Amino acid sequence: MISLRLAASAAARFQAAHFQAARPLRMLALRTYATRRYTPEHEWVSVSNGVGTVGITDYAQKALGDVVFVEVPSVGAVLKRKEIISAVESVKAASDVYAPVGGEVVEVNTKLGDEPSLINTSPYEEGWIAKIKVADETQLDGLLSEEQYAAHIAE
Predict the structure, then answer these.
(1) Per-residue three-class SS string for 94-155
(2) Would the pLDDT of 8 be above 70?
């Protein structure tokens, strides 16, 4: 009976230590997820430490079809909110992409030059278009939350 209690106690300590170590990771993942905002025109931005990663939504890439070319902005370009940041061409159509926030372009996804299909296969992770140092984070207040965007595309 004592050995079972010791084993149960050891298991409880292990679980407590394991879940304590994992808790900051889960909170970080939720914070990142919660910061993604959307435009009604199907762009998204996820802000971390004042830098917004910008791309097009899964809904947009499905509507476009197979992406064959992506024009990215120049690093150092200063963009205003709703200004054209990119152009995406697919086998069906070409579409301009608008900056959901204003600021300076600090990085572009150079992988899209060789693999524009990343927008189709991974629009939120590997298919991002540019990173912008956000000039004014209050601009995010005018964008849609995940729930609002889901309701928008369901209409």
Answers:
(1) EEEEECCCCEEEEEECCHHHHCCCHHHHCCCCCCCCEEEEECCHHHHHHCECHHHHHHHHHC
(2) no
